[in-house]
Specification:
By secondary structure, the chain is of the alpha/beta class. 38% of the residues lie in helices and 17% in strands. The two termini are 23 Å apart. The structure holds adenosine-5-diphosphoribose.
């Protein structure tokens, strides 16, 4: 299966759902999670249970957040993001389901209402008690000023980046919209994900089971390569524009 097969399938598709992971943002300077120099090579995970039950756990979680935030804030969309904008311009993009949290898809020009953030966003922090939100810039300013695990100024509750941590409930309405998109598309284009995290990785499988073609673009093999109609190995910023006929 090669670029040729993928190009043929893409040319024949009119109701495409994009599914992206951290790999589409590495060319913007945002590290992914499981590559050799990824986030998990340098940080331990703090799951949701530890975050809510341990002050040291919260301090470590926020330390990682404050370290990662400047690169995410300064990052600019790359040719991979722009290829999805081109698909949308062509009227062929039903939805863009993403595991990514830095909002580069929205910043590239995709309408926010078609970007389905399965794992929330790191651009804001949310109080786990009252739901009040502050920007990540404000949260990081407070950390730099010494508040190592910021609390909600409205109710005193725990402030947490508005992402979905391991062990935290998925956003049900977003998941339902992603499942509906997967069941109605004619091609699911999975880009820059290791496809190892559930339930996110169930979305490409659902699309395939519902009769869609599955095209995977990724530097490394994934567990879904065996059910894909085409697998393309390569750098996303080079491969994707060619697949969608974009000018990159
Ligand atoms: N071009 C092509 N592939 C790339 C590129 C690139 N420029 N950069 C990275 N990749 C590939 C990597 O080889 C890897 O297989 O993208 C994949 C990224 O996989 P992960 O780092 O596992 O990221 P992701 O799939 O988004 O992780 C899913 O896990 O830690 C949680 O919540 C986090 O949303 C994240 C979830």
């Amino acid at each position: 299966m090669s670029d040729q097969a993928a190009r043929g399938l893409m040319a024949g598709a009119s109701r495409i759902v994009g599914f992206t992971g951290a790999g589409i943002s590495t060319e913007s300077g945002v590290p992914d999670f499981r590559s050799p120099n990824g986030v998990w090579a340098r940080n331990r995970t703090v799951d949701f249970h530890e975050f809510v039950s341990s002050e040291p756990g919260r301090v470590e979680y926020w330390r990682q957040k404050a370290e990662a935030w400047p690169a995410m804030r300064e990052a600019k969309p790359n040719a991979g993001h722009r290829a999805f904008v081109e698909l949308h311009r062509q009227g062929r993009l039903l939805a863009l389901v993403t595991q990514n949290i830095e909002r580069l898809h929205q910043r590239s020009g995709l309408p926010a209402d078609i970007v389905l953030e399965l794992h929330g966003t790191t651009t804001e922090a949310e109080c786990l008690t009252c739901g009040d939100r502050i920007t990540s810039d404000e949260a990081c300013r407070r950390i730099e000023a010494g508040e190592r695990a910021p609390r909600c100024r409205a109710c005193g509750g725990l402030l947490k980046p508005a992402t979905i941590s391991f062990g935290q409930a998925m956003p049900l309405e977003v998941m339902a919209r992603a499942q509906e998109a997967a069941e109605t598309c004619d091609l699911l284009l999975a880009v820059g994900s290791s496809l190892v995290v559930e339930p996110a990785a169930s979305i490409p499988r659902l699309a395939k089971a519902a009769g869609a073609r599955l095209v995977i673009v990724n530097r490394e093999p994934t567990p879904l390569d065996g059910i894909a109609d085409a697998v393309v190995r390569g750098e996303i910023g080079v491969v994707l524009p060619a697949l969608v006929g974009a000018n990159g």
